[in-house]
Amino acid sequence: MLLIWLEFAVCVTVITIAGYKLSIYGSVIAERTGMGGTLVGLILLAAVTSLPELITGISAVTIANVPDIAIGSLMGSCVFNLALLVILDFLYREESVYSKAHQGHVLSAGFGVVVIGFTGFSVLESTVGILPPLSHVGIYTPIIFVSYLLATRTVFRYERDHRAEFVEEATEKMPGITVRDATVRYSVAAIFVIVAGAFLPVIGDQMAIEMGWQHSFVGTLLIAIATSAPEVVVTITALRLGALNMAIGNLLGSNLFNIAIVPVVDLLYTKGPILSNVSVVHAVSAMSATIMTGIFVVGLFYRSRTRLYRTIGWASLMLLSVYLINSYILFIHGG
User: Under CATH, to which class is 2-334 assigned?
Assistant: First the structure.
């Protein structure tokens, strides 16, 4: 049992370090090839920190055959990313992040509510099976894919400005690196993430067996935290660089990309629509992420400067509460 936890810790460490390198070198490539201010640049940078979720999801349905871990890691990552706003609020000592952040984030947050909420709805609908599948995939797959493209096309103009802020800071720290060097280092880091991400579902499957846990619980809490490690590092680094809006945009953008992975794993899972073959508890995580996104939007518009004992604002307290409740429900259901 100790060996399994050691393997899990090694994967988390590899994903954390390699994921951070991916974000830095991806930013350099996007800026110095002129992609930083384009739709391609937005997709590249949004996909960078979500690469572990993508690889883990693919591995979970093609190698380990544990669809609950694939969907759990995606839903859990969305919830965890929103919980990172609490850490941002705590570390940002100037004032509440909700009073400082740009209100343009409500656009990507709004799309997040739509796609995450729809995914949760699809999980519940799959238990009834009213809507017919499209071959071996669910009818939700093309809808989610089109929604992601629409969301990306709509918000990229705003995201472009704030991502550029982070990109400039990153490139200033490595003024001598060429596009070729950045590409090579990006590729090496990607290989490490791919290998670690491919092993995670297998380790998660063994962990579930050894600990007597449900795959939905392991995927939503443990695997999701592991695959979200790059978001943690990139978010805190962006905050240290003074790029608060980049940090928030990264979290909201990653959630959109995470949901866009659902159609990918659905296509690769050949035993039928994937949401029809997973635990209904994933709908709880989807609803939790939807509620948390709504709390963020309310906090962003209300722009309260009040902090509880100079720590976090009321909105962050509500976010933390929903995250803990979600974790407790998952533990009770599958722990």
Answer: mainly alpha
